[in-house]
Amino acid sequence: MSETTSTSTGPRTAFPLHPGRGRFNAAFFSLLGPYLERSLRTQKSRVYAGLPRAVVELGPGVGANLRHLPPGCTLTAIEPNRYMHPRLEEAARARGVRLDLRERTAEDTGLPTAGVDAVISSLVLCSVADPVAVLAEVRRILRPGGTFRFVEHVVASPGTPTRAAQRLVRRPWAWTFEGCSCERDLAALIREAGFASVDLRRYRVHTPLLPFNPQIAGVARA
Q1: Closest CA to 178 of 30, 26, 57, 62
Q2: Number of domains observed in the structure of the chain
Q3: CATH number at residue 164
Q4: Are 173 and 180 spatial neighbours (Cβ–Cβ below 8 Å)?
Q5: Which of 69, 129, 165, 172 would suit a FRET pair with 98, their CA atoms being 20 to 30 Å apart?
Q6: Which of 44, 201, 38, 214 is closest to 121 using CA atoms?
Q7: Per-residue pLDDT tens digits for 63-103
Q8: How many helices (DSSP H) and strands (DSSP E) are in the chain?
Q9: Which helix (H) or strand (E) holds 56?
Q10: Which residues pair with 201 in a beta bridge?
Q11: Range of 104's domain?
Q12: pTM higher than 0.85, yes or no?
Protein backbone atom coordinates (compact mmCIF):
# COMPACT_ATOMS: atom_id res chain seq x y z
CA MET A 1 0.00 0.00 0.00
CA SER A 2 1.55 3.31 -1.01
CA GLU A 3 1.07 6.67 0.63
CA THR A 4 1.59 10.07 -0.94
CA THR A 5 2.33 13.37 0.74
CA SER A 6 2.84 16.56 -1.20
CA THR A 7 4.41 19.92 -0.53
CA SER A 8 4.68 22.94 -2.82
CA THR A 9 6.50 25.51 -0.70
CA GLY A 10 9.74 25.54 -2.68
CA PRO A 11 10.93 27.91 -5.38
CA ARG A 12 9.73 27.54 -8.92
CA THR A 13 12.02 26.45 -11.71
CA ALA A 14 14.16 29.20 -13.22
CA PHE A 15 12.94 28.13 -16.70
CA PRO A 16 9.28 29.18 -16.28
CA LEU A 17 6.85 26.29 -16.29
CA HIS A 18 4.57 26.85 -19.25
CA PRO A 19 1.23 25.00 -18.92
CA GLY A 20 1.31 23.81 -22.53
CA ARG A 21 4.90 22.58 -22.43
CA GLY A 22 4.41 21.15 -18.95
CA ARG A 23 1.49 19.05 -20.13
CA PHE A 24 3.32 18.11 -23.34
CA ASN A 25 6.35 16.82 -21.44
CA ALA A 26 4.18 14.84 -19.04
CA ALA A 27 2.44 13.20 -22.01
CA PHE A 28 5.68 12.77 -23.98
CA PHE A 29 7.51 10.93 -21.22
CA SER A 30 4.46 8.81 -20.43
CA LEU A 31 4.27 7.73 -24.07
CA LEU A 32 8.03 7.37 -24.74
CA GLY A 33 8.88 6.01 -21.30
CA PRO A 34 8.95 2.31 -22.25
CA TYR A 35 11.13 3.03 -25.30
CA LEU A 36 13.60 5.15 -23.32
CA GLU A 37 13.68 2.55 -20.55
CA ARG A 38 14.69 -0.16 -23.01
CA SER A 39 17.58 2.04 -24.16
CA LEU A 40 18.76 2.83 -20.63
CA ARG A 41 17.83 -0.33 -18.69
CA THR A 42 21.32 -1.85 -18.63
CA GLN A 43 22.96 1.29 -17.25
CA LYS A 44 20.16 1.98 -14.76
CA SER A 45 20.25 -1.60 -13.47
CA ARG A 46 23.99 -1.23 -12.87
CA VAL A 47 24.06 2.14 -11.10
CA TYR A 48 20.76 1.76 -9.20
CA ALA A 49 21.59 -1.70 -7.87
CA GLY A 50 21.42 -2.04 -4.09
CA LEU A 51 19.57 1.19 -3.37
CA PRO A 52 18.48 1.68 0.25
CA ARG A 53 14.82 1.73 1.29
CA ALA A 54 14.72 5.55 1.39
CA VAL A 55 15.77 7.41 -1.76
CA VAL A 56 15.65 11.00 -3.02
CA GLU A 57 15.08 11.43 -6.74
CA LEU A 58 15.67 14.65 -8.63
CA GLY A 59 13.08 15.11 -11.37
CA PRO A 60 11.35 11.73 -11.28
CA GLY A 61 8.87 12.88 -13.92
CA VAL A 62 6.15 10.28 -14.40
CA GLY A 63 8.01 7.56 -12.49
CA ALA A 64 10.30 5.83 -14.97
CA ASN A 65 12.74 4.81 -12.23
CA LEU A 66 10.23 3.37 -9.77
CA ARG A 67 10.90 -0.13 -11.12
CA HIS A 68 14.51 0.15 -9.94
CA LEU A 69 13.59 0.90 -6.31
CA PRO A 70 13.43 -1.83 -3.65
CA PRO A 71 9.96 -3.08 -2.64
CA GLY A 72 8.32 -0.87 -0.04
CA CYS A 73 10.78 1.96 -0.69
CA THR A 74 10.08 5.53 0.40
CA LEU A 75 10.78 7.99 -2.41
CA THR A 76 11.23 11.70 -1.80
CA ALA A 77 10.46 13.11 -5.23
CA ILE A 78 11.73 16.59 -6.14
CA GLU A 79 9.57 17.41 -9.17
CA PRO A 80 8.82 21.04 -10.16
CA ASN A 81 6.56 20.14 -13.10
CA ARG A 82 3.18 19.75 -11.42
CA TYR A 83 1.72 18.23 -14.59
CA MET A 84 3.87 15.16 -13.98
CA HIS A 85 2.45 14.64 -10.50
CA PRO A 86 -0.76 12.69 -11.23
CA ARG A 87 1.05 10.09 -13.35
CA LEU A 88 3.87 9.84 -10.80
CA GLU A 89 1.39 9.31 -7.95
CA GLU A 90 -0.47 6.66 -9.96
CA ALA A 91 2.78 4.84 -10.80
CA ALA A 92 3.91 4.92 -7.15
CA ARG A 93 0.60 3.42 -6.00
CA ALA A 94 0.87 0.68 -8.60
CA ARG A 95 4.38 -0.25 -7.39
CA GLY A 96 3.72 0.10 -3.68
CA VAL A 97 6.16 2.98 -3.23
CA ARG A 98 5.61 5.47 -0.40
CA LEU A 99 5.82 8.85 -2.12
CA ASP A 100 6.84 12.15 -0.54
CA LEU A 101 6.20 14.48 -3.48
CA ARG A 102 7.70 17.97 -3.36
CA GLU A 103 7.09 20.68 -5.96
CA ARG A 104 10.57 22.17 -5.64
CA THR A 105 13.65 22.65 -7.78
CA ALA A 106 16.75 20.48 -7.48
CA GLU A 107 18.82 23.54 -6.54
CA ASP A 108 16.86 23.85 -3.28
CA THR A 109 15.34 20.58 -2.11
CA GLY A 110 14.51 21.83 1.38
CA LEU A 111 15.90 18.60 2.86
CA PRO A 112 18.13 18.48 5.97
CA THR A 113 21.89 18.56 5.66
CA ALA A 114 23.63 15.15 5.71
CA GLY A 115 20.35 13.29 6.09
CA VAL A 116 20.15 11.19 2.92
CA ASP A 117 21.78 7.89 1.97
CA ALA A 118 21.07 7.95 -1.77
CA VAL A 119 20.10 10.48 -4.45
CA ILE A 120 19.28 9.39 -7.99
CA SER A 121 18.67 11.19 -11.26
CA SER A 122 18.15 10.29 -14.89
CA LEU A 123 17.91 12.76 -17.78
CA VAL A 124 17.59 15.65 -15.31
CA LEU A 125 20.87 17.56 -14.99
CA CYS A 126 20.46 18.59 -18.62
CA SER A 127 17.43 20.71 -17.77
CA VAL A 128 18.12 22.22 -14.34
CA ALA A 129 18.85 25.95 -14.31
CA ASP A 130 22.19 25.59 -12.49
CA PRO A 131 23.79 22.12 -12.53
CA VAL A 132 26.70 23.27 -10.33
CA ALA A 133 24.23 24.40 -7.66
CA VAL A 134 22.32 21.12 -7.97
CA LEU A 135 25.46 19.06 -7.43
CA ALA A 136 26.35 21.20 -4.41
CA GLU A 137 22.85 20.57 -3.05
CA VAL A 138 23.26 16.82 -3.59
CA ARG A 139 26.52 16.89 -1.64
CA ARG A 140 24.87 18.92 1.12
CA ILE A 141 22.01 16.50 1.72
CA LEU A 142 24.05 13.27 1.42
CA ARG A 143 25.45 11.66 4.52
CA PRO A 144 29.19 10.89 4.47
CA GLY A 145 29.52 7.77 2.34
CA GLY A 146 26.12 8.33 0.71
CA THR A 147 25.80 7.96 -3.05
CA PHE A 148 24.58 10.02 -5.98
CA ARG A 149 23.63 7.69 -8.83
CA PHE A 150 23.05 9.23 -12.24
CA VAL A 151 22.17 8.41 -15.85
CA GLU A 152 22.40 11.52 -18.03
CA HIS A 153 22.80 12.61 -21.64
CA VAL A 154 25.75 14.88 -22.38
CA VAL A 155 27.59 16.94 -24.99
CA ALA A 156 29.10 14.96 -27.86
CA SER A 157 32.78 14.98 -28.81
CA PRO A 158 33.92 18.04 -30.81
CA GLY A 159 33.86 17.70 -34.58
CA THR A 160 31.35 14.83 -34.68
CA PRO A 161 28.02 14.80 -36.56
CA THR A 162 26.25 14.41 -33.23
CA ARG A 163 27.91 17.55 -31.89
CA ALA A 164 26.81 19.44 -35.02
CA ALA A 165 23.25 18.20 -34.53
CA GLN A 166 23.29 19.33 -30.90
CA ARG A 167 24.31 22.85 -31.93
CA LEU A 168 21.71 22.93 -34.69
CA VAL A 169 18.73 22.02 -32.50
CA ARG A 170 19.77 23.58 -29.18
CA ARG A 171 17.19 26.40 -29.14
CA PRO A 172 14.07 24.45 -30.20
CA TRP A 173 15.22 21.50 -28.07
CA ALA A 174 15.50 23.70 -24.96
CA TRP A 175 12.17 25.41 -25.65
CA THR A 176 10.34 22.11 -26.13
CA PHE A 177 11.87 20.22 -23.21
CA GLU A 178 11.65 22.86 -20.47
CA GLY A 179 15.19 24.24 -20.75
CA CYS A 180 16.95 20.96 -21.56
CA SER A 181 20.47 21.46 -22.93
CA CYS A 182 22.16 18.77 -25.02
CA GLU A 183 25.48 20.64 -24.80
CA ARG A 184 26.47 20.25 -21.14
CA ASP A 185 29.70 18.54 -20.15
CA LEU A 186 28.12 16.89 -17.14
CA ALA A 187 30.94 14.40 -16.72
CA ALA A 188 33.35 17.23 -15.98
CA LEU A 189 30.88 19.00 -13.69
CA ILE A 190 30.30 15.86 -11.63
CA ARG A 191 34.02 15.14 -11.36
CA GLU A 192 34.66 18.74 -10.25
CA ALA A 193 31.79 18.88 -7.74
CA GLY A 194 33.86 17.76 -4.73
CA PHE A 195 32.64 14.18 -4.24
CA ALA A 196 35.00 11.81 -2.45
CA SER A 197 34.98 9.50 -5.47
CA VAL A 198 33.31 9.28 -8.87
CA ASP A 199 32.90 6.07 -10.92
CA LEU A 200 31.63 7.21 -14.33
CA ARG A 201 31.24 5.48 -17.67
CA ARG A 202 30.55 6.97 -21.09
CA TYR A 203 28.40 5.12 -23.59
CA ARG A 204 26.08 5.77 -26.50
CA VAL A 205 22.49 4.79 -27.08
CA HIS A 206 21.12 4.37 -30.59
CA THR A 207 17.89 6.29 -31.09
CA PRO A 208 16.53 8.63 -33.78
CA LEU A 209 17.01 11.43 -31.20
CA LEU A 210 20.63 12.01 -32.27
CA PRO A 211 21.44 14.87 -29.84
CA PHE A 212 20.36 12.62 -26.96
CA ASN A 213 22.60 9.64 -27.77
CA PRO A 214 25.90 10.46 -25.95
CA GLN A 215 25.39 9.47 -22.31
CA ILE A 216 27.10 8.93 -18.99
CA ALA A 217 26.15 6.76 -16.01
CA GLY A 218 27.83 6.32 -12.70
CA VAL A 219 28.01 6.64 -8.93
CA ALA A 220 29.51 9.55 -6.98
CA ARG A 221 30.20 9.03 -3.29
CA ALA A 222 30.07 11.79 -0.67
Answers
A1: 26
A2: 1
A3: 3.40.50.150
A4: yes
A5: 129
A6: 44
A7: 999 999 998 999 999 999 899 999 999 999 999 999 999 99
A8: 5, 8
A9: strand 54-58
A10: 217
A11: 4-221
A12: yes
